[in-house]
Hints:
This protein is of the alpha/beta class. The chain has helices spanning about 15-25, 35-40, 60-65, 85-100, 115-125, 185-215, 220-230, 245-255, 280-295, 300-310, 325-330; strands at about 5-15, 45-50, 70-75, 105-110, 130-135, 150, 220, 260-265, 270-275, 335-340, 345-350.
Amino acid sequence: MENDDERIALFLDYENLAIGARDGLGVAPFDLGPVADALAERGRVVARRAYADWSAFDEDRRLLARQQVELIEIPQRLGVPRKNAADIKLAVDAIELAYERGFITTFAIGTGDSDFTPLVHKLREMDKRVIGIGVESSTSRLLPPACDEFLFYDRLPGVEPRPTPRRSRSRVVVVEPDPVPAPEPEPEEAASVEDEDREDVGKLVASTLAGLQRHADGPVLASRLKRAILRKDPTFDEADWGYRGFGELLRHLQGERVVELGEGSAQGDPSVTFPEPGPDDDAFGLLVEVVRGLGRPQLSGLKNQLRKRRPDFSEKRYGFNGFLTFVRAARARGLVEMERDDDLGDYVLSVPR
């Protein structure tokens, strides 16, 4: 029986991860559980190795032993620091394993150090998938784009950052007046920022789907679309936009008429296309015409401008539950651009040149 699961080898630059989690998140000792759970969702972890001078991580060593991690000792001899000793040993072992264990399909490299970028490139040259893992505050910007997928430890389920107490610099007691309660943020403002984020993910999905359709011979499956998005942005995670899975995100975009889902070759992996041309194309044309004529109009009042051209206009006639949803669908299709203007407290629209 054929096994299509990814076979994953996990390599941890442990000092980098542990110090990053401690200083950036207040998490100590480092908890490998969230990493193990995330990798288990992607395949079978067949090798686990961590590299460090373990004399500095006594409690961590016991926790990792319970997680079946092989601990590779990199001692600091005679008090002389050997900063790159663990890095070199990890890289040599990873390449060696790639040659000796051809069945391993994926390497998960736990570090935020850009020094490992050449290792990532070499593994990908050998047709290995590479998943990076790092703490966001201590991860070099050069590393995530080099990987096929990058998991920020901060965002994994089960990771709870702990606030670090601030040390008092003085013992002088200062009597302060009663604090004036800060004004509560306006809920409409928060909601509009969230809407803008959701528009961004819709535009990302739509532009990626359009590119795949230009080069595909058959239907584009959801799994292929997700892989293509990860190639564009290895840090992409639908949970960042409040969705429990990629399928839920696609169903939301289908409700907004950005994409259309059909039956795929396997259960749970639907085909993804754009909605067929229909009467809403005429409505989108009207929107583009009005926006172009007005230059850079605000979203508020724009619907009335459309009704001046067409008195019977209503986005609900085209299957949209609100005017904002209608405009967002037009933006996802690349017909208009929409950006938030904080001074106006509103969105400003324009037509792409």
